Amino acid sequence: MKISEFSIKHPVVITMLIIVLAVFGFYSVTLMPTEFMADISMPQAIVYTIYPGASAEDVEQDVTKILEDNFVTLPHFKSVDSASYNSMSWITITYADGYDAYDQLQELRNRISELIELLPSGIQGEPRALIGGVSMLPIISFSVQAGKDSARVSDFIKSELTPKLTQIDGVSEIQVDGDKELEIDIKIDVDSLTAKGISVSSVYQVLNYGNVSLPLGNATFQDKAIQVRYAGGFNSIEDIKNLPVGVADEKNVIRIKDIAEVSLSYPKEEYYITDGTDPLIIVNVTKRSDGNSLKIVEQVKNVLAECEKESAGAIEFHIISDDSKQIKSSLKTVIQSGVMGIVFAVLVILLFLADWRATLTISLSIPLCILFSLIGLKVFNLSINLMSLTGLVISLGMVVDASSVMLDQIYRYYAKRNSETGELEYTVNQAINKGWSEVAASILASAATTIVVFLPISMLSGLIGKVLNTASITIMMAIFSSFVVAIVIVPYLLKLLLKEEGPKVRTKKRKFDVVMEKIERGYRKLLLVSLKNKLIVIVSAIFLLILSGVIALRLGLPLFLLQTLANSLFLWICQLEQNLNKL
Q1: Which of 374, 459, 454, 434 shows the shortest CA–CA distance to 32?
Q2: How far apart are CA 284 and CA 136, in angstroms?
Q3: pLDDT over threshold 90, residue 358
Q4: Cα 138 off chain centre by
Q5: Which of 143, 199, 376, 378 could form a disulfide with 28 if both were Cys (CB 3.0 to 4.6 A apart)?
Q6: Rg of the chain over all Cα atoms, to the nearest angstrom
Q7: SS3 for 322?
């Protein structure tokens, strides 16, 4: 049984299939993350180390070389680049294509922990490993302002605001700039300390020992074993002031407050952020690679509005940057272009066929193709972004082609009448089956050749692959969807819309039809001339091909060479800028 016959004889099945696929299409849109661009960052990790006061040569020898020699044995390692500067080491690790750098981050940090004993004691903390790329950029930044008491604002951000923001699905990290925390400042009176016979090192040791918590072992009390622990630590500034550091005589204990001035103060600022009057704190929110930028920004704004309401206006938030505006603006432009393309395609069909039923068929087939394509994008775990929507817009013409060819061929037989009697030569079913039989193979071949062209592009690796993969996969999904719609849905729609009495017979030709007939006659004459002068046509085609190549070279266009080696596809790009000449 032909597919066209199945579509005609089982309209209920096709209707249910369309409904199910349409529902899945809309559902896929709700699940897919929305962002400006897909993540085009390479699978790289960055390890940087701060070594204050060291020269670039010392950093290279004592830090960079030790770490670099160990990192080359990391799983899925591809290459490593390093740079040593005065007081800092910077190492970039690139993993093999197809591996997520986030999955390798824990192993990298374990390696750093194992190597810490081999590194100089003068480094600042431990070498820090992080994932670079577009995902590090914040999707929303805002300032927090609540008067001049920066310490209380910082505490509010740390204890209340940050936990609420990190609970949002898709948020990766909350970065705070300009926050302040009060420090305990102890200024020792050296003369008083000397007079009492106490050394500075003794005071330092007392402060250290008083701020620790240590296990003291087990003890038995009333036949029960209990764990004993020394719970040190300071709960207030008074605990530090009253800390004993020595004894003057049998009755008088010397405390910190007797030999030093203890106070709370802000540390010296390396930089500060202000609006000209009050200090500001900037909060940056970054997302995970699978996060939905629009939803995250919306939920962040809801959290900020809730905090402002709870504080009765005492805390103010001001948005500094918001990626959602750029995303909406860019996607809106692309969507408007796509809608205009659909409208023009429908108008062209209406102009040529002058039948609202045929036009309605095309009008319904285009959104169905788009919905089916979105299902494919969800299957491939792609996002709605500038490249995927651009792929859909580019494929609109090709999407219309398949349905238009099927519609035109069926309509020809549907409208065909006997020249003598004027009666229809084919019923609706016969016209659909006959037209379907003649063009189904051609539509399949056309779709297959287009998909084959984009298939190698979708398999590219590296930076070029990340840029082009989304658009190429989108176009392939759209072409495949258009093929399915053309051979299954279009016959079904025509069966529902076309009437058995055939199209309305026009007594007078339209001016447009007259013009098209003249163009067709001119084309037939040109075709006959071409067939009679085959050699001239072939030589002209070869000449134009060579001329196009020469013009392309003079324009400085990049040359693409596809080479298959060991089942891997590489793209070599020539004449690129210097910073992209090696991928």
Answers
A1: 374
A2: 10
A3: no
A4: 13
A5: 378
A6: 37
A7: strand
